[in-house]
Records
---
Amino acid sequence: MSYPRILHHGAVTGVTGSCHQLQMDAEHGLLIDCGLFQGAEVSPEGGAGADKLAIDFSLEGIKALVATHVHIDHVGRIPYLLASGFKGPILCSEPSAKLLPIVLEDAFKLGFSRDQQQVERYLRLLEQRIIALPYDRWFTLADSAQLKAALRLQRAGHILGSAYVEVDLTYKQAGASKRIVFSGDLGAPHSPLLPAPKAPERADILVIESTYGDRLHEDRQTRRQRLEQVIEQALTNKGSVLIPAFSIGRTQELLYELEEILHDHPGLPGRGVAAAKMRPDGSPESETIDWHNLPVILDSPLASRFTQVYRELEPFWDIEALTRVREGRKPLSFANLLTVDAHQAHLAMVRRLAETAQPAIVIAAGGMCAGGRIVDYLKAMLHDPRHDVLFVGYQAQGTPGRAIQTHGANGGYVLLDGERYNVGAKIRTIGGYSAHADQQGLVDFVTQMREWPSEIRIVHGDADAKIALAEHYRAQYRQANRHVEVKIPVARDKPRPQSGSQK
Ligand SMILES: [Zn+2]
């Protein structure tokens, strides 16, 4: 049998459950990500959802796990991996090492136990296993008589701490070497806060995501302008703008852009209050938005914790963000930003905004309105035409978010916790908040390499996206008169467990 071999344990039929195995030789295996299956992928062909949580592959010879970033579809099965007896280290970038325990504490509480002692024991175990790797530095995985293996993380620009993984394998006896690159999730260029990913210098084999393999994003400037317009429209009729938000990455991007919008509007301290439209008595005109006093309310304890860590990890921000810091601005802790932590405070905030319809921007978890604090806001405010709901993320089929988005505009209703709520609020959607590279970004990742890979394996995408991306790669290679084998791996054949041979 020849090595290296790559097995895909997830993110092959869809975009979730990322888990790939690099079998370097007979004795040395490496896992790249160990994510949870989510959404429609939880209820697969005839199987129960719980099957998808189990680690259904052999851990023999797996020496380490490397986590490309802390999104739950890339790390969410780590608690199950540990429970299955995985003894190796968990390698990740330095920022990920700070974010990972927060994510996995949450995953543990949801999947295993809320018992505080157990949670703490588990977190201690986890922290012993995590090895934080600086970007751009080689780490030796194995050095035996036959094999030398090392890996290096590079910035992927997707969320803070995200990385793509370069693995160098040297087969000493054969005198052969291979470089394999796993893209993880790649970010879009010009995404706020994070430097754009740079293509690797080279690869023999590339395993690449394809979430937006068949689409191009609108550029960031357009997105920022649309956010500003939408908020302006929403606030002129008084009332709040409710933004259901995902915890990691997107919330911080939104805050960053909101700070930018607030900063660009006259009336902020240091920018001259006189520039705002004023009545003779000095109060703002009624139709003018009082940006200066507009609260931006972050109502999600988890998102607040992530935002806190994002602030602490300032050295990993991009140049634009750091320039703002040097100018005395606080992109993630600006004066208008108010975080709501305790549940009582949350309920009080919902009551206050529902009663007063005071202009405010509320960012509350969860992203698809299927749970989390956003649901309380919706129950109290969705009927009221003074308010607006602004979607910045994908709303999956069957979620309340999707129902509000599709039926909300024409007097529709939504079921929240089994009860019917009429939609009176205005419903708005802004695209372009994906933290993923689009087709151009995915193509550039390959064509900007000095040496292009001879094998590309496309994972982490819907069938259409993968096929479109594969076509683009083939065309690029044809044009450059180079050879490539583009593969779209299918789900691994699982040996059906014999009855009674349960592990
Ligand atoms: Zn991700």
---
Amino acid sequence: MSATHDVIVVGGGPSGVAAAVELRRRGVRDVVLLDRESELGGATRHCSHSPFGMREFHRVYLGASYGRRLQQEALAAGVDVRTSHSVVRLGDDGELLVSSPQGVSSLRGRRIVTSTGARETPRSARLVSGDRPLGVLTTGALQSYVAFHGLMPFRRPVIVGSELVSLSALLTCVSHGARPVAMLEANARATAKQPLTWLPTVLGIPFHRGAEIVDIQGRQRVESVTLRRGEVLTSIACDGVLFTGRFTPEASLHMLSGLGIADGSGAPLVDQYGRLQNPLYFAAGNVLRAVETGGWAFREGRAVGRAVAEDLSRPASACQPVRVHFDAPIKLVVPGLVSSGDRMAVNAFRHFQLRMTCAAVGRITLLLDGLPAWQQSGRWLPERRILVPMPPGAPDAGRISFVFEEKA
Ligand SMILES: Cc1cc2nc3c(=O)[nH]c(=O)nc-3n(C[C@H](O)[C@H](O)[C@H](O)COP(=O)(O)OP(=O)(O)OC[C@H]3O[C@@H](n4cnc5c(N)ncnc54)[C@H](O)[C@@H]3O)c2cc1C
């Protein structure tokens, strides 16, 4: 027989810690927080730079100290923290299979919150051809080398990508003795906002827009890469390649366990309370939608924790939510479900969060039962947060959809 806990939170990054602490604050007695790493903090604890924690703790932390603060918050709130515990299966009935140094065991939760974060797309999934030398990494791997082993694996890498995390990669390089020889962005413009994207220029590092890496050369270590700009191929000498960003939700647990993931986001589908179609399960943070900041993940975790605390006061009942529909170039909408019955006092999600697959100019309209409830025209950029307030009438609608009309 496995022990039954009030709530089990899977993943101890900002969103999982915030959910667990909020549950304890709201009087939930038995909250277990599981993380596969040896300490809490999630992706933040690998970051040797700031800014973290401004909104939630009103001070600026470096990533590693922010991670420690999260761990202190969880312990001080009386959360039962179990690190080095990997969840390997999520059962339909709330039973989790957990692997730890003590072996494999089962735990059962009356409710489960998954907050397993997101991961960057590595070389293999980007289909970059060529040799397989040492020195090809993602930002997360680089930051682990630096933070936990004091190692800098290259001196003159090429950085691929121009998201916020790409700038984090750039800062990690320059603050640890490496000098990137170039930054590359496949699109015509940088993904992160100005003035952040001025950073490479300020540091004197060439920033190639509209350039894609197509091949890596090197016998043992990386020696050069081939870039394609339109039809033109050029070679850059370097000793490493840093693939940054293009995050995808860490949702393999949901997929393998049969809870399912959505097209577009690659994430579990939740309703306005953060609840999956299986009403024992909730989710928060970057597992819902790659990718947001630490502060955003924290607030989302807290809001979902509040909803779970309320939900615990009644039996879990299967909800029949309405699916939110959308068309390209809209890439994802979170929440992707809206429940009507069984309402809670406050939504965990007060907005629909949208992302686009590519830059587009035109009008986004939210339709409830075919009638416009919100619309806005503009130039929409990929990976930028778009927030649409959830109308009070959304839970009563039989059909909810977002449509995009391109400006001629
Ligand atoms: C390189 C980098 C730089 C960044 N820089 C900044 C910055 O400067 N400022 C900022 O605000 N944000 C920054 N971010 C973003 C921020 O780190 C994330 O938004 C935040 O960590 C997301 O929190 P989360 O709780 O959703 O997920 P994560 O922090 O990713 O936490 C997920 C946790 O789940 C655990 N987990 C996953 N699967 C399992 C499993 N099966 N069993 C048990 N545990 C599991 C993982 O070990 C991890 O601890 C950065 C991110 C990266 C990668």
---
Amino acid sequence: MKPDLFQAPDYYQIDDLLSDEHKMVRDAARSWVKREVSPIIEEYAQRAEFPKQIIKGLADIGAFGPYIPQEYGGAGLDQISYGLIMQEIERGDSGVRSTASVQSSLVMYPIFKYGTEAQRKKYLPKLASGEFMGCFGLTEPDHGSNPGGMTTNFKEEGEYYVLNGAKLWISNAPFADLAVVWAKDASGRIHGLIVERGMEGFTTPETHNKWSLRASATGELIFDNVKVPKENLLPGKSGLGAPLGCLDSARFGIAWGAIGAAMDCYDTALRYAKERIQFDKPIGGTQLQQKKLAEMITEITKAQLLAWRLGVLRDQGKATSAQISMAKRNNVDMAIKIAREARQILGGMGITGEYSIMRHMMNLESVITYEGTHDIHLLITGMDITGLSAFS
Ligand SMILES: Cc1cc2nc3c(=O)[nH]c(=O)nc-3n(C[C@H](O)[C@H](O)[C@H](O)COP(=O)(O)OP(=O)(O)OC[C@H]3O[C@@H](n4cnc5c(N)ncnc54)[C@H](O)[C@@H]3O)c2cc1C
């Protein structure tokens, strides 16, 4: 792969909207990605392997629980800092960002928000340091966009809950030490349970042959009469709103992360267009390629402003789920379109692993589907503005 020459675009001086702390956190993540992710990621993606050696570095830049209070091992940062860290990591690779998002928003967040003090103390510091890695089991083979239909269930039996069912498409599953699993009790109400690797009847087979997020490990969670101690239930919130609260946090991170992938594609295409000579002049001097590049920077700038404003609203505790849906949908769509256009600017070179664009493009095919598909987020906006549900 080519050396990482990335220069972040900031067409509207959005840096002026950031605090010194935001910029410090962002710059630390940016240089770590340049040093530790860029040189190795292509090889790991080609091999379809998660680079486990970067776990400690992810922890060190605050990517595991950026907004979790320091007393539980988190970085104690605000939402904009969290977003900026996700942006920088996804600038390197969406699969690496997925690992960090799952750990922070889908594992640490529910334990912090819905867990007991004993659960927080037991799990959060180890998750923040990367000693424990977690995964989040919501999607099932027959219930993706409609997780409320899940059939994974548990029944009380003495000191335990006995868990049965299966989850599919679970990021981090193959190597996770623990899983936050969403399952129905005997009355059909959804609860979160912490299931630990090693519990009898719990297996995590890996999903192979992905063309997307190849540097992120994905798998199934199978529960065959798993005896989960009662103290592993998250008591603070039940019902579908509990996992959806976690998804709000993760989707917010994706809205920022997608900007990173888009910036990397744009920056690569811009540099290439200025250097690549055809018909005795740089292709960047042609109107057609300038149209592509000008539209890219316009869309990136709009996405940056959307994410920044959403970050302010989240820091003020005012962001709605529907606002988060809009940003996730818009920014991922923006990024995937930019990846496709950038790929074309590089001509044949665009399909090779010499450049990051094709990897970003393939990764974004998952990002546009997981954490609520492109369609589902549109329906959420539609429901929000009309007051009418088009889901069923
Ligand atoms: C790489 C990867 C990693 C993932 N990681 C995780 C994870 O860590 N944990 C987890 O729990 N899940 C995870 N997922 C699952 C992901 O969230 C689901 O794939 C997603 O929610 C969509 O579900 P589905 O694939 O079953 O598609 P479906 O729900 O079957 O949807 C298929 C199509 O139908 C459309 N559709 C569905 N309902 C409607 C409707 N009412 N109206 C109009 N159109 C509709 C959808 O938009 C989509 O285009 C991951 C997925 C991938 C690909």
